[in-house]
UniProtKB/TrEMBL annotation:
E.C. number: 3.5.1.115
GO biological process, one term: glycoside metabolic process
Organism: Ferrimicrobium acidiphilum DSM 19497
Organism superkingdom: Bacteria
Keywords carried by this UniProt record: Hydrolase
Membrane-spanning parts: none
Protein's UniProt name: Mycothiol S-conjugate amidase
One Gene Ontology molecular-function label: hydrolase activity, acting on carbon-nitrogen (but not peptide) bonds, in linear amides
Amino acid sequence: MHTYTKIPDTALAIFAHPDDAEIACGGTLARWAGEGCHVILAVATQGDKGGDGDDPGRLSEERTRELLEAGRVLGVNDVIQLAYLDGELENTIEFRRRLVTLMRSFRPEVVLTGDPTAVFFGDLYYNHRDHRQLGWAVLDAVFPAARQRAYFPEAGDPVEELEVLLAATLEPNTWIGIDGLVDKKVAAMRAHRAQLARYQDSLDRVVAERARQAARMVGGTGEAELFRLVRGGA
């Protein structure tokens, strides 16, 4: 496992729900933003069925406000909402067209998303369908679509090879140090009250311990986030 030391000029994080990026890689986004990277966060769904789910319209508006608040905490430059409904995300041609348009418009060096191959996390949790659909769609958009002109020519000029960092993975091969940034990650997560209110009392402890555990896994000290680094194409 190696350390990802590069600070990209531009990074594009694409996740399914309003709180996913903060949980999966909030420390990394905060670190990069603090070191001058232009960070774009794209969220695929409205988060309309999260939380108590009793009023999807109200919940969607609330989670948008929370998303923007969390983005300010992390230092995100642009927040983009694709506004699909929870549970209805599909890896379709139209969805990939929108993702390719984002990639060709912002031209990031690295894309962050969730690992769609990580399904079963012990016997307590298996990965949300939206996460799996989103992860595969992002990978399909990165390669070959974003790189080859014949795919979605209306989306703009093709991009060069993109690195992809897959978070929430069971097969990490890369880590990024987030020493001193756990408090900022927790603050961003706390902004998502609709979804994470029931965890507010334990967030500091749990997030800090997981970050320390990640660092120990790679033989280090301090705090870290783990990823699976992949590249599309040769």
